């Protein structure tokens, strides 16, 4: 059967929530009746969200689908500064649980029609009266649209206890607003054929509730002596890797330092042996030198503000990065020297180890400087790192000289974006599976 809606109706409902998240940037979001976690799998890519929670009465389906919410490999290899924690609970939306109080956004997508009318009252009390979120999005089938749907007899799903007309839905929503202190705007997804929208409205009607007074009024409500209620069972929780975790920050920083130090070492070795590997040549163009010059000047300015002294290491960084080239000195013990712009030489290889100044790494490697924040902080973070060998004064990274360079390339650790895999559509019954 040719789909009635394009994109399918369930995707339009999810996109409505995603668009709301993009506009309002909530930090704490809970999806009631999360089912196969399809909406959660899409929301997890919106990193303005710091806590993402799903609740469903069917624990078996959560356990079957929850691993699709786990971080992918790129989240560990290239963590961001964003924080994200995901939690999944088994429980009823008619029961209170204090862990879900005070969220920025609660979504209830095609859920309320599965409740009895008595449970709808309890749902209203739990969501609007107890959880007191800043915003609530409720979608439900519009019964007036049903005559336009193909091969549909009765309700859209065998488990539906009711399907409201627009007037019935608005009556319930306005009653909730008066009772619990919200305001609501009505909209929907799934447009009717041309000329029929005024008569039947949207296929799925949506109410967007905003708490009067916003976040401030919610915080005031939490000053009461509400009892500690834990009705839900936690089935899954995961913290996404974040650079705000000091251990993760240190791991990523060490990886970048070793990569760039190896790159600089290769330059020294190429000059020593006379062999040049274009894949690892540092840019010697005038534009590249000017970029390093500007970075070095920023390095010196930041260090001078922090210490009150003009840092010599930053001066070396300026000379080495913008004008320094490695030279080989012939002798019994062959050493490689940096030649700075003043014609002075500084040892690059000490006892068969390549010495790479931290100032060079900090000023010429944007990601290293971004992760560490300052040259002194870079030194501090690397001081007790077992995978990094520093010089005695802690001013340089020491790398062992290799007699024969391996053919394996050192791959750059540039950021890669996590790909979004396809997700199964939520099934609202035989009818909606075909539209």
Rough outline: elongated
The beta-strand count equals 14
Order of strands in the sheet with the most strands?
6-7-5-4-1-2-3-8
Order of helices and strands: HEHEHHEEHEHEHEHEHHHEEEEEHHHE
Low-confidence runs (pLDDT<50, min 5 residues)? 278-300, 309-347, 404-427
- Please identify, by name, the CATH architecture of the largest domain: 3-Layer(aba) Sandwich
Given this structure, which CATH class of the largest domain is correct?
Alpha Beta
Q: Percent of residues in beta strands?
A: 15-25%
Major sheet summary line: 8 strands, mixed
| Count of structural domains | 2
Helical coverage, percent range: 25-40%
Stated plainly, the CATH topology of the largest domain is called Rossmann fold
Number of helices: 14
Rounded mean pLDDT is 79
By secondary-structure content and strand pairing, the structural class works out as: alpha/beta
Query: Radius of gyration, Cα only, in angstroms?
Result: 30 Å
**Can you tell me the CATH superfamily of the largest domain?**
Vaccinia Virus protein VP39
User: First CA to last CA: what distance?
Assistant: 8 Å
């Amino acid at each position: 059967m040719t789909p009635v809606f394009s994109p399918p109706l369930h995707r339009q409902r999810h996109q409505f929530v995603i668009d709301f998240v993009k506009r309002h940037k909530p930090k704490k979001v809970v999806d009631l009746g999360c089912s196969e976690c399809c909406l959660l799998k899409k929301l997890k890519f919106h990193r303005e969200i710091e806590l993402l929670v799903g609740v469903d009465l069917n624990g078996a389906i959560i356990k079957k689908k929850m691993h699709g919410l786990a971080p992918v490999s790129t989240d560990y290899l290239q963590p961001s500064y964003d924080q994200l924690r995901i939690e999944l609970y088994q429980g009823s939306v008619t029961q209170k649980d204090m862990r879900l109080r005070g969220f920025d956004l609660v979504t209830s997508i095609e859920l309320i029609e599965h409740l009895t009318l008595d449970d709808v009252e309890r749902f209203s009390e739990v969501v609007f009266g107890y959880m007191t979120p800043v915003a609530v999005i409720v979608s439900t089938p519009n019964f007036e649209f049903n005559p336009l749907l193909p091969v549909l007899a009765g309700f859209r799903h065998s488990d539906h206890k009711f399907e409201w007309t627009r007037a019935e839905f608005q009556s319930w929503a306005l009653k909730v607003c008066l009772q619990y202190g919200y305001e609501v705007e009505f909209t929907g997804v799934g447009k009717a054929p041309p000329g029929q929208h005024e008569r039947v409205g949207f296929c799925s009607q949506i109410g967007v509730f905003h708490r009067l007074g916003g976040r401030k009024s919610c915080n005031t409500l939490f000053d009461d002596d509400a009892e500690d209620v834990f009705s839900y069972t936690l089935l899954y929780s995961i913290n996404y890797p974040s650079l705000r975790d000091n251990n993760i920050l240190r791991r990523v920083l060490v990886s970048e330092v070793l990569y760039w130090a190896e790159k600089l070492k290769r330059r020294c070795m190429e000059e020593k042996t006379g062999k040049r590997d274009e894949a690892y040549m540092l840019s010697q163009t005038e534009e590249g030198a000017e970029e390093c010059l500007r970075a070095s000047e920023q390095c010196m300015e930041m260090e001078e503000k922090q210490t009150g002294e003009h840092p010599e290491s930053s001066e070396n960084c300026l000379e080495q990065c913008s004008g320094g080239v490695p030279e080989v000195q012939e002798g019994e013990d062959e050493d490689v020297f940096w030649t700075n712009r003043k014609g002075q030489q500084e040892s690059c290889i000490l006892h068969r180890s390549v010495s790479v100044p931290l100032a060079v790494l900090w000023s010429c490697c944007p990601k290293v400087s971004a992760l560490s924040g300052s040259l002194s902080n870079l030194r501090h973070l690397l001081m007790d790192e077992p995978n990094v060998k520093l010089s005695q004064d802690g001013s340089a990274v020491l790398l062992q000289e290799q007699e024969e360079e391996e053919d394996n390339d050192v791959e750059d650790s540039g950021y890669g974006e996590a790909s979004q895999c396809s997700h199964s559509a939520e099934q609202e019954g035989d009818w909606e599976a075909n539209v």
